[in-house]
Design a protein that fits this description.
alpha+beta; Glutaredoxin; four-stranded mixed beta sheet
């Protein structure tokens, strides 16, 4: 490195650092991803069911396929959102989630029901008021 090129190296290092920060803030799994998912809760005209889960959770693995199936069945009638607590722990804390799987139902932006643990599909429908 020549002594006259030091400022170029310094500018390059600063640009690399800024680029890394921007990349890190926009990667999937950052806390802003879940927050934008839950913006549907405030604006939805239909009931919303949010499931907080984790990949390592046994009961979550059992109810996961039922939740996915319910989401397909209720298209247009309700919104079903799944949020991984390992990827978005801040969002889980903000919603008072202490155990998983946790199901929270919303209508007109307000919480209408909450269940913790593996529940049957009929109970999920009941939470939604359907």
């Amino acid at each position: 490195m020549k002594k006259g090129n030091f400022h170029l190296w310094l500018v390059g290092a600063v640009m690399l650092y800024i680029g890394w920060i921007v990349f890190d803030m926009n990667r999937p799994g950052s806390s802003s991803g879940g927050t934008s998912s839950l913006s549907a809760v405030r604006t939805a005209k239909v009931p919303v069911l949010v499931e907080f889960y984790a990949d390592w959770c046994g009961p979550c693995k059992v109810v996961g396929p039922m939740v996915d199936e319910l989401a397909q069945e209720l298209k247009g009638k309700a919104i079903v959102i799944r949020i991984n607590v390992d990827e978005d722990p801040k969002l889980a804390r903000e919603h008072g989630v202490r155990g998983i799987p946790a199901f929270i139902a919303y209508k007109n932006g307000k919480e209408t029901g909450r269940e913790v643990g593996g529940i049957p599909k009929e109970r999920m429908l009941s939470l939604l008021g359907l």
